[in-house]
Specification:
Largest sheet of chain B: 7 strands, mixed
Number of strands of chain A: 11
Structural class of chain B: mainly beta
Strand content of chain B: over 45%
Distance between the termini of chain B: 37 Å
Helix content of chain A: under 10%
Number of helices of chain A: 0
Shape of chain A: globular
Oligomer: heterodimer
Helix content of chain B: under 10%
Largest sheet of chain A: 6 strands, mixed
Distance between the termini of chain A: 37 Å
Strand content of chain A: over 45%
Order of helices and strands of chain B: EEEEEEEEEEE
Radius of gyration of chain A: 14 Å
Chain lengths: 111, 114
């Protein structure tokens, strides 16, 4: 079993749609959680951190369920510019870190 | 302010050779991490260095090594290159003065092994 698993893609959605990505992690001692976005042949860029209380940034909402070891990302009112690969990221350890990326979920938003 | 810078941007090597990749973190960042990304996969964690000490290591063979210098820049070395080492190598820096600090990535070095 992979340490971080994401929904298999690709997701093909029309503009304006709401889309949700899921991610599960295997190590219950994981401490920090993030969603990154990666455009084709570009470096990953931080989209948002994920907190137990849930957090929202404009059209994006992230949720963390530690009991179920589950992370989600919700994108509302999808834009063409949201087309990218979304990477779920989990950090383990304290005083030293191991950062685990999921394989990513590809999103295509079409006009 | 400059972001994370990596050099070279592209590199072609042959099997058995050795390679050194370089990374300069964002000014003020003391932590540098290295990742390998092959097409269609997420980045795979190789090393993390903080204050010049190795603080984390992924599941890579001993052919992979790294170090961090007093100015917090870092080098990744790979010996005895294999065809499977062909990938995008990403460097990321963070301040790491507390938990939950995001990482900032460089553009990467694209390594091709012939």
């Amino acid at each position: 079993r992979k340490e971080v698993e994401q929904d298999p893609g690709p997701f093909n959605v029309p503009e304006g749609a709401t889309v949700a990505f899921n991610c599960t992690y295997s190590n219950s001692a994981s401490q920090s959680f993030f969603w990154y976005r990666q455009d084709c042949r570009k470096e990953p860029k931080l989209l948002m951190s994920v907190y137990s209380s849930g957090n929202e940034d404009g059209r994006f909402t992230a949720q963390l369920n530690r009991a179920s070891q589950y992370i989600s990302l919700l994108i509302r009112d999808s834009k063409l510019s949201d087309s990218a690969t979304y990477l779920c990221v989990v950090e383990q350890g304290s005083g030293g870190f191991k950062t685990i990326f999921g394989a990513g979920t590809r999103l295509f938003v079409k006009a | 302010d400059a972001g994370v810078t990596q050099s070279p941007t592209h590199l072609i090597k042959t099997r058995g050779q050795q390679v050194t990749l370089r990374c300069s973190p964002i000014s003020g960042h003391k932590s540098v991490s290295w990742y390998q990304q092959v097409l269609g996969q997420g980045p795979q964690f190789i090393f993390q260095y903080y204050e010049k000490e190795e603080r984390g290591r992924g599941n890579f063979p001993d052919r992979f090594s790294a170090r961090q210098f007093p100015n917090y820049s870092s080098e990744l070395n790979v010996n005895a290159l294999l065809l499977g080492d062909s990938a995008l190598y990403l460097c990321a820096s963070s301040s790491r003065d507390s938990h939950n600090q995001p990482q900032h990535f460089g553009d990467g070095t694209r390594l091709s092994i012939l």
